[in-house]
Amino acid sequence: MEQLMEILREVRQDVDFDTCTTLIDDDILDSFDIIAIVTEINEVFDIQIDADELLPENFNSAENIYKLIQTLQAEDN
């Protein structure tokens, strides 16, 4: 989770990723932020987040993003 938090903070230092659960719903993250986050996650965690996984519920909170990462890593094994 710490690696994910580092990625998120690199992209948007002004967001409280520890508590925010409406990153997409409240337009806190825009499409450019999501692209940057997904690119870094794919590289750091050695996974592939596909377009069909780019759903608001997967990116509304750091916790949801981390759950997506864990799901994709489990599928690879």
Output the keywords.
77 residues, mainly alpha, Non-ribosomal Peptide Synthetase Peptidyl Carrier Protein, Chain A, 4 helices, 57% helix, globular
What does this 3D model show about the protein?
The protein is mainly α. The chain starts with a helix and ends with a helix. The protein has one domain: Orthogonal Bundle (Non-ribosomal Peptide Synthetase Peptidyl Carrier Protein, Chain A), CATH 1.10.1200.10. Helices cover 57% and strands 0% of the residues. The protein is built from four helices and no strands.
DSSP strand count? 0
- Total DSSP helices: 4
The amount of beta strand, in percent, is under 5%
| CATH superfamily annotation | ACP-like
CATH architecture: Orthogonal Bundle
Into which percent range does the helicity of residues fall? 55-70%
CATH-defined fold name: Non-ribosomal Peptide Synthetase Peptidyl Carrier Protein, Chain A
Are there runs of 5+ residues with pLDDT below 50, and where?
none
Mean pLDDT: 97
Task: Give the radius of gyration.
Answer: 11 Å
Please outline the major beta sheet: none
Shape: globular
